[in-house]
Write a sequence for this structure.
């Protein structure tokens, strides 16, 4: 009896320890970005060369290099006390802040920009902005804040508020991002180095027709017009204004015609006298780096140009040397990979700094004398990111991060130390302090593995050959829980396939969407391959899809299918596919061009016909419908709807301003015309992605569709 | 061997005869209104008291009463020859025509109104109208055509074209139907008896906000605004103009305020001096029959009024006596049933002509001396229609049609003979000539039973008691093909449930939708019950639903479920429901209020919240949301979405201007908020009903939903 009890106790202990549960859909969907997201210190920043800070539990902590103890700098309550002294309202969470200098930080709090002295914990200054202000851009050099109210631009600083623009026409928009955030553009204001001038985008959309969206949640449905120029149509026109805060005058740079060109990657010269714009023609195959005089607006010169018979896509502003204001660093893919070049402002190439069959993914900076450059790159592997130092003269390159995985680093001001934030397949997150001098490493923080209680399918990464028989493609496969190689399992392919995205990475869980674990727990193999066209694999890998979207990607995806079909444990009659946006387009490609293979598909927010997609992205990859009619025809899913055989569901956000719902509507109409059954669902209040709690509903909808039909 | 051969031959003969096939979905959906619709002679009309005509195979034939032989009057080719003589283009099918007198007919042909003499087969006159003319109204008395171009009214006649209205504001609309075709209104122009004057509706919608629909089939989606005043909101304003064709002047009747009242059921006095309008207040509970002077526009008097604490719904214009111009006939439901009353124009009641617990469904006319009135009514049974004659003085009523079924009759000019077009459960269509004098009947035509080759489930009609335990409700049930009472069958309830519709009738196949036969062939019992609120059962039966739509109807529908559950062969765990429009609303009511009963539902074009439905219909049955907040709350399906348990699909026409898609959109949003799975489909180019070939796609979609889930 005693023995039995002991056994019973042992049984409970053992099962208690190993009682892993499959992941619920809620955990998979909502957990990954909230309660199951591994906790890491926030706002890790260098304060000076010997100290770095981080926020933990609403307290700003500081650590000295070489020492392991953390010191409190200021807590949220102390910060609120400082606000109160100045009559400012309290805030609820520790604000996102930036250092102005080691003593001062600035942050936003209740419609104020606040400058705080960390040493005496006192508010030095606060600048108010209106509640409906958007596009805030704070210049620490002159403590002046730029912001927009509706379509006009304002600045607020020591001399009060100045209205920079006063356009009555609501479709002339100042100070916001333009060109739909393509070409690396994510803002619309650019302070000059000393803060005396403010460059800003002015976008004229009056020549673009209104595109109707409808808010169905109103008491009576309400029209919400947007501007959505489609490929080949009249597009908006952008100029760059330069506002002089002293004279209160604006001049516009004489960027010339045709007016629907792209003004990308704005950089100020260090002396504030000129602005450099990477100007791209609408055809996107000819870029000029133009220098403009900010007093006259005149073109000073074209510093350099870049051409490509497919497309040029400038995404990095030039970076001026700090030791020689006549010199700048320029990133280009012109040799097939994104690399860094050293130029003088006469446009003469001094040197190609990095070189090789890999891509610089971030130019982090230089040492004081600019003898060495620090950068992040795919040099080790396309699915890893490491931090490197290259000597500008010798070309000698050192890899500064060690572990296989994805590293993101910040350098100390003296470039002697690096804080390395990294993850890897089994590392949910780690912070290391790397000393370059001592060649040593100190682990600062290891995130808790929030998934350790879950029973997850086996997750592996490997390569297959692309349809060109030569190129390696990275794949991720998750096997079903309790995998038995003697059984046959259905497969769900998760696909994106378009440019600027890479789904398989050596990050935690190999970048798997946790939904894939959920479906694996339901007995499905989850498979993903990054086909040609996807990110970080060089120019040729990406632009293989040019003018024929869907063709090469589909061929490569089918190589993934060939691989799957070669596996004895794959049920070749039960293969499904799901993707969103470009992945929705790819889902349609696969379902319609390979109806013999795919039994079930769910296409979310899909592009159906590229002529209904917007100008900037659409024309880069497809040219215009007028220039490339055959390409548009071949990539138009309406022309393949007659091949529909399996179960296909389209899902669209009714408010989608990115891939407009007419794409799905026209596909449905075509299916109806052809008497083909197709399924559909909408999220009435969502845009291009279903975010927030509603995402659980979406993933249930998608999961059920596979569970019921595959 | 010989014997075997004989047996074999016999076998083929027997099976050949009985080789009935179940009905395909295509036959059920598209066949019923086209290739499987029983053919009947078209345009059967009396020419004079001894002759009637009909069109068969594009030939106008004439038959003399008492004789059985048909005589050709004119063929399509002869008619085209006559057109050609006058330089008019040929037409492709025999036109819909009307007699002006026994010798002359008029019809429309290629933007012409043509008057043709049947005796000499010559065109007497033709009046041209523009290609974009709408709302044509031809006055045979003066050979003048009224029509609209966009929002303005024109007439064309002997003295050329006159522009009656010239409103530049497009939301002032002249000469069209108003008040969304409620109150029996189906046109917007009213010629005076001698054709000297034209009364017309003028609708001012400028005070009603634009309601946005979107045409997604355009190259870029296009906004299509409609006017859709919702219950409780500002509504349009209607006036009645009177145009004098001689003076070319228009006066507007002084119909007074409030301006959002309803001007219904326009009648001219025989002397053309006044117009009678059944004016209804916006609350729809007080009707005044007002007489206006058409010279001054002044109100002459209120002839009679009708009030009801629920609603008054005038749908029949008054009909003036031909023997005494001071007398008119008036239809009202004021005693609880629609009956005919005789009045003088002082508003004094002379007599109630019909009376009883049944409804007059058509006042067909009188004999020359107006001693007898002819009418169609539900006197025999609510699900039959017979033709009757009542003596105005004695009240003696004779039923003139014999067979149980649905009769629709036209009287000869001398009222001595009747052509009876009728159907019954097993009669797809029959034309009889009934002689009143001889009390005899001649069968003129018997339609071929187009369904005889089909194996159809048994179709029965019967009654159950309503939820009030007292009222009879008519039900129709179709049993599965090859019904076996020892088995258990799932049920699909097809429901409408709203006013102005009756689904169970003694017509061919008991008015079954053939889709019900299709589902019966798939093993489902098809069931329908006309609950309280539906048509032709008297005022109390209908208005039991007032201010609480969905409550009484649901209770009655559940009595149908109780009946079904009492049947040993019903699988009580597999009950589904489908309906469209009000039936979509009822589907939601049943699914959400009785989740324990209904496993699967398909709600097409459903009303979800009556406050999003239009003014005229909505306020009649629900009052305004301001007046009846609790009623609106209780009938709002958004408030029951949390009860959703079964599989529910909503379907909506994206262009629906009747039940706007926001109804479905808001329901989806609510389900998403509640994390309730629901399905949805849209028909991007369709309005409130999916018509034409696309209907097959719709019915496949609906059928599959039941086949897969029920």
């Amino acid at each position: 009896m005693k023995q039995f009890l002991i056994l019973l106790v042992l049984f409970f202990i053992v099962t208690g320890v190993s009682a892993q549960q499959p992941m619920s859909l809620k955990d998979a969907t909502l957990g990954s970005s909230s309660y199951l997201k591994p906790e890491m210190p926030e706002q890790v920043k260098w304060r000076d060369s010997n100290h770095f800070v981080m926020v933990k539990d609403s307290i700003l902590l500081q650590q000295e290099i070489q020492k392991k103890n953390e010191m409190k700098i200021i807590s949220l309550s102390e910060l609120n006390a400082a606000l109160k002294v100045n009559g400012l309202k309290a805030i609820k969470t520790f604000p996102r802040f930036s250092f102005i200098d080691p003593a001062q930080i600035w942050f936003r709090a209740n419609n104020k920009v606040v400058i705080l002295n960390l040493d005496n914990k006192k508010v030095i200054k606060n600048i108010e902005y209106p509640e409906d202000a958007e596009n805030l851009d704070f210049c620490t050099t002159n403590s002046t804040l730029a912001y927009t109210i509706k379509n006009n631009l304002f600045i607020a600083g020591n001399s009060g508020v100045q209205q920079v623009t006063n356009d009555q026409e609501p479709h002339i928009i100042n100070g916001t991002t333009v060109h739909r955030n393509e070409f690396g553009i994510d803002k619309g204001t650019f302070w000059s180095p000393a803060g005396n001038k403010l460059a800003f985008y002015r976008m004229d959309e009056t020549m673009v027709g209104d595109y109707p969206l409808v808010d169905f949640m109103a008491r009576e449905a309400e029209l919400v017009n947007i501007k959505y120029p489609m490929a080949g149509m009249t597009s908006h026109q952008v100029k760059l204004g330069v506002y002089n805060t002293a004279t209160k005058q604006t001049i516009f740079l004489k960027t010339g015609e045709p007016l629907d060109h792209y003004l990308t990657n704005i950089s100020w010269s260090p002396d504030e006298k000129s602005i450099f714009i990477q100007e791209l023609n609408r055809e996107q195959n000819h870029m000029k780096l133009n220098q403009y005089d900010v007093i006259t607006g005149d073109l000073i010169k074209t510093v350099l140009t870049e051409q490509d018979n497919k497309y040029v896509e400038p995404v990095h502003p030039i970076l001026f040397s700090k030791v020689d204001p006549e010199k700048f660093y320029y990133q280009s893919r012109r040799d097939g990979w994104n690399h860094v070049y050293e130029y003088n402002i006469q446009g003469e190439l001094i040197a190609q700094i990095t070189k090789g069959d890999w891509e610089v993914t971030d130019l982090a900076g230089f040492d004081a004398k600019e003898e060495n450059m620090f950068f992040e790159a795919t040099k080790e592997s396309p699915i890893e990111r490491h931090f490197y130092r290259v000597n500008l003269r010798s070309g000698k390159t050192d890899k500064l991060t060690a572990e296989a995985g994805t590293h993101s680093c910040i350098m100390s001001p003296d470039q002697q130390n690096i804080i390395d934030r990294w993850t890897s397949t089994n590392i949910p997150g780690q912070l290391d302090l790397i000393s370059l001098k001592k060649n040593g490493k100190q682990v600062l923080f290891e995130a808790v593995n929030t998934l350790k209680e879950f029973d997850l399918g086996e997750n592996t990464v490997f390569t297959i050959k692309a349809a060109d028989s030569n190129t390696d493609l990275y794949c991720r496969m998750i096997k079903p829980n309790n995998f038995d190689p003697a059984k046959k399992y259905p497969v769900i392919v998760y696909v994106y396939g378009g440019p600027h995205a890479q789904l398989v990475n050596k990050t935690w869980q190999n970048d798997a969407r946790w939904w894939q674990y959920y479906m694996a727990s339901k007995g499905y193999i989850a498979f993903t391959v990054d086909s040609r066209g996807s990110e970080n694999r060089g120019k040729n890998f990406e632009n293989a899809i040019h003018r024929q979207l869907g063709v090469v990607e589909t061929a490569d995806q089918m190589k993934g299918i060939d691989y799957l079909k070669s596996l004895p444990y794959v049920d070749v009659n039960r293969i499904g596919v799901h993707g969103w946006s470009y992945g929705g387009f790819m889902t349609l490609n696969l379902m319609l061009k390979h109806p013999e293979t795919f039994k079930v598909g769910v296409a979310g927010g899909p592009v159906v016909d590229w002529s209904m997609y917007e100008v900037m992205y659409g024309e880069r990859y497809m040219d215009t419908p007028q220039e490339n009619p055959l390409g548009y025809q071949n990539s138009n899913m309406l022309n393949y709807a007659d091949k529909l055989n399996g179960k296909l569901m389209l899902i669209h956000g009714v408010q989608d301003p990115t891939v407009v719902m007419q794409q799905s509507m026209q596909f449905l109409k075509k299916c109806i015309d052809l008497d083909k059954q197709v399924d559909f669902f909408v999220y009435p209040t969502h845009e291009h992605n279903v975010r927030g709690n509603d995402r659980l509903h979406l993933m249930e909808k998608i999961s059920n569709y596979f569970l019921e039909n595959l």
